[in-house]
Write a structure and sequence with these properties.
This protein is of the alpha+beta class. It has helices spanning 9-58, 60-64, 68-76, 147-199, 213-255, 274-280, 284-287, 298-314, 359-404, 410-441, 451-461, 463-469, 485-501, 559-569, and strands at residues 84-91, 96-101, 116-119, 123-132, 135-145, 259-263, 269-272, 318-325, 331-342, 348-357, 449-450, 472-475, 480-481, 509-517, 520-526, 574-578, 584-591. The strands form four sheets. Strands 2-1-5-4-3 form a five-stranded antiparallel β-sheet. Strands 7-6-10-9-8 form a five-stranded antiparallel β-sheet, sandwiched between helices. It has a five-stranded mixed β-sheet with strand order 12-14-15-17-16. Helix 1 packs antiparallel against helix 4 and helix 13 packs antiparallel against helix 14. It is elongated, with a radius of gyration of 60 Å.
């Protein structure tokens, strides 16, 4: 049997109407019967008490003269009340003077001297004393059955049952009208929704049958269908546009010489272009999702997967160099890039990536690296081996000038001075070249250093120049950075030394500071020197590039090249902001982590 909640609304309306009507009538009828019984009991108590008092008063003469006949005649008047079972008149000594019985079998109970009214389940008993001139001379007892109450209950119950049956029939007939007014519009809505669900046709509309809330509900339902139909048409159009764009993208991807792929937001690759199939000799089913990892070189695969998963999780662009195995079994270097395409809500809808073969570039880089290593080794060895003969030239030119200056004419002394100065400049040049080579070859630091402590060491090395120039050098709080102590000291020493060297008329004022910029620390060295023309901002970082060749500004022009080489080896960069006559600010960055 179906539960109530699963029945049709039309049946629910009938059931609710019938149950409500029945319950209401039953409660009303039961209330009437119960109240009538209660009120009728009260009525009987009052009526019979009055009757008992009258009979008791009329029995005084019979008791006074002890006349049983007169007492019996008084009790005989009770025959008018058919529900009186019996009555007794008692003498003062508790003997029965007269007795009345409706059926002749009544026995008088023991006398009670006080007035009393007692209801039992089926009877009402009333006791009243018989008093003459304020003196009790006997007692009267009346026994009344309660069948009259039962008869009234049966009569009223019959009436309530008849009314209930008539009302139920009327309610059933009225429920049909109610069902038609309420259930029919709802049924039409159900039919419309079922048709839409079955056919997927949002052009279907429900028929409005009334102007009440159900009519408004029908209108809102039809408006909702219209809105869905409009959005469905837009989605179909958008889907067709997406399919066209996808076809256009696939056509372009298949036409490009590069290897192209796309992936789902989860990172599962769902498209490889033809160039991938030709390179690997595999099918798309073999490479899809994460199958492509089988082509990655074993040394690269773990880092490759971690980098790809990180991009998928964070949405950051993917950029990775790794080796892929071709159809010939050889591994070739590729540069892989991928970016996330996002929808209007900013959620990733897909990934689009490319894989560019860089095998030749890698081979040339390797060749160039070996050549650079050889060149650095040669420069280091050459500068180191040149130091001794250059030192000899400088020393012996001093000895000749000191011992034989008086034996040389003016031209000879001038030539010897040129030789001495040239030797000194050559020694300085070789030392700077050796410093540049060491900066290129030294091992990178793997532990953090206190930049403030390194700055103090640099200032100690420049103490004499600071004293002579009257320079004032200040700095903010500086962080710990992942850079070699000697390397950072080289950078500070060259930048501060240049600020002191290229000073203006006023004493140098130099300030060193650092600020956090995302993944790097950005240091700045600001001075009040002569400044630099903007057209030379890049040139000054070249090896042996000098903007000033007069005697006031000595040097080989290699200091800034050393700074650039050191900073770039740690993954940072260096640049300058300056205007002539307004001082300069040199900036360099260092990654937060090694």
């Amino acid at each position: 049997m179906r539960s109530f909640r699963d029945r049709p609304i039309s049946q629910k309306l009938v059931i609710i109407t019938m149950v409500t009507t029945t319950v209401a009538l039953l409660l009303a009828g039961t209330g009437i019967i119960v109240l009538d019984s209660i009120f009728f009991r009260g009525y009987l108590r009052r009526d019979l008490s009055a009757l008992a008092r009258i009979v008791a008063d009329n029995s005084t003469a019979a008791l006074a003269f002890d006349d049983p006949q007169a007492a019996g005649e008084t009790l005989a008047a009770l025959r008018a009340r058919p529900h009186i079972v019996g009555a007794c008149i008692y003498r003062l000594n508790a003997s029965v003077l007269a007795r009345y019985s409706r059926h002749g079998q009544f026995t008088c109970p023991p006398v009670e001297t006080e007035s009393a009214t007692r209801f039992t389940r089926n009877e009402l008993t009333i006791w009243r004393p018989v008093v003459l001139k304020g003196r009790r001379i006997g007692a009267f007892m009346l026994l009344y059955d309660l069948d009259e109450i039962s008869e009234r209950v049966r009569i009223y119950g019959s009436v309530v049952l008849g009314v209930l049956l008539g009302s139920s029939v009327l309610a059933f007939l009225l429920s049909g009208t109610l069902r038609s007014a309420v259930a029919t519009p709802i049924s039409r809505l159900v039919e419309a929704t079922t048709s839409v669900s079955r056919t997927g046709d949002y052009a279907i509309r429900a028929q409005r049958l009334s102007n009440d809330e159900l009519g408004v509900l029908t209108d809102r339902f039809n408006e909702m269908l219209a809105g869905i139909q409009s959005r469905d048409d837009e989605l179909k159009k958008a889907f067709r546009d997406v399919e066209k764009e996808r076809e256009r993208f696939h056509f372009m991807a298949e036409s490009m010489p590069q290897k192209i792929f796309t992936a789902k937001p989860s990172g599962d690759v769902d498209y490889f272009n033809r160039q991938w199939m030709e390179f690997t000799g595999l099918t798309f089913e073999q490479m899809r999702d994460w199958g492509w990892t089988a082509m990655v070189h074993p040394d690269d695969v773990q880092a490759n997967i971690e980098a790809w998963k990180n991009s998928v999780a964070t949405g950051e662009p993917f950029h990775f160099e790794h080796r892929f195995r071709g159809a010939d079994g050889r591994y070739r270097w590729h540069l892989s890039r991928a970016r996330a395409m996002r929808d209007a809500d900013g959620k990733i809808s897909m990934w689009i990536g490319s894989n560019t073969e860089i095998q030749e570039q890698k081979e040339k880089e390797e060749e160039l690296r070996h050549a650079n290593d050889d060149l650095r080794q040669f420069a280091y060895s050459a500068s180191h081996d040149l130091q001794e003969p250059i030192r000899n030239v400088a020393v012996y030119s001093e000895v000749v000038l000191r011992r034989y200056a008086d034996k040389l004419d003016a031209d000879g002394q001038q030539f010897l001075g040129f030789l001495r100065d040239g030797g000194r400049r050559l020694a300085t040049l070789v030392n700077d070249l050796l410093a540049y080579t060491r900066a290129s070859m030294a091992e990178l630091a793997e532990t953090p250093v206190d930049a403030a402590a390194v700055l103090n060491k640099s200032l100690a090395s420049l103490a004499e120049a600071i004293r002579e120039s009257g320079a004032e050098i200040t700095h903010d709080a500086l962080p710990e950075i992942w850079m070699g102590d000697a390397h950072l000291q080289q950078v500070f020493q060259n930048l501060i030394g240049n600020a002191i060297k290229y000073r203006g008329p006023a004493p140098p004022r130099i300030h060193v500071s650092a600020e956090s910029r995302g993944a790097v620390w950005c240091f700045s060295v600001q001075d009040n020197g002569i400044g630099i023309d903007p057209q030379y901002r890049e040139k000054i970082f070249g090896v042996f590039k000098r903007l000033h060749h007069d005697q006031r500004y000595s040097g080989t022009g290699i200091g800034l090249a050393i700074c650039q080489r050191v900073v770039e080896r740690y993954g940072g960069r260096i640049w300058v902001e300056s205007e002539p006559g307004e001082g300069s600010t040199f900036f360099f960055t260092v990654p937060r982590r090694g």
